[in-house]
Amino acid sequence: MKLSGKIALVSGGSRGIGFATAKILSENGATVVITAKNNERLDKAVLEIPNAIGIPADIRNSNDVKNVIKEIIEKFGKLDILVNNAGVFPQIKKLHEIDEAEWNEVLDVNLTGQFRFTKEAIPHLQKTFGSIINISSDAGLKAYEGFNADAYSASKAALILLTKCWALEYSKDKIRVNCICPGVVDTDMTKPFLKTQKDKEFMNNEHPLGRIGQPEEIGKAVLYFASDDASWTTGAILTVDGGESIK
């Protein structure tokens, strides 16, 4: 029970990496609040996670984000852990084919959305010497030939640098800020790219360890950063990608 008595918030916690993370934090003693736009999916997720509540919220909406933090403080009186997980993946297109609205949508969710939650959470994390974990991507570390998801890559790269900025900015408050960069993980977001056996074999072979990741493997990395095991770790960028980014 590494997180006994802790209150954790996981944005985009109704499925994929967010759901697995929320479940692992809960199993380690935390009370977990998850957010999602889809109420039905949120309700279903909460039933499967012990000690969890769901608060509907659109990360693009500042008032929704403020309401989530307000409800957490009213109900629990504090916040210890923020996991900035919510994100979207665009259609694969070359830069000159991307509509500006598509570009803005990805940055609004993957970058400005993380800003919104962090901004609202900071005053409360200052009181608990809390921990922030940003979920970026190994696509934020390097360019991949044929990947062609420029807005996604830009948003994830920016989140990596923001992790370091926030770690320095709030170190005097004893708030730790760290970042995880997954490779391809088996989630609803990646399923469209893994439709055939040939697709799966190709993607497995892109990772030196011979397979794509599982959501729980990212959740365990979040647990490390959220717990006292990482009490002297801030500004760290942890790549959890089966070796994909070192090729």
Describe this structure in words.
It comes from Nitrosopumilus cobalaminigenes. InterPro entries: NAD(P)-bd_dom_sf (IPR036291), Sc_DH/Rdtase_CS (IPR020904), SDR_fam (IPR002347). With 247 residues, the protein is α/β, with parallel strands linked by helices. The protein has a single domain, classed as NAD(P)-binding Rossmann-like Domain (Rossmann fold, 3-Layer(aba) Sandwich), CATH 3.40.50.720. The chain is built from seven helices and seven strands. β5 (131-135), α5 and β6 form a beta-alpha-beta unit. The longest helix is centred in the middle third of the chain and has 29 residues, at 100-128. The chain is globular, with a radius of gyration of 17 Å. It starts with 6 loop residues before the first strand and ends in a 7-residue tail after the last strand.
Strand-helix topology:
Elements: E1 7-10, H1 16-27, E2 31-36, H2 39-48, E3 52-56, H3 62-76, E4 81-84, H4 100-128, E5 131-135, H5 150-169, E6 176-182, H6 197-205, H7 215-226, E7 237-240
Parallel strand pairs: 1-2, 1-4, 2-3, 4-5, 5-6, 6-7
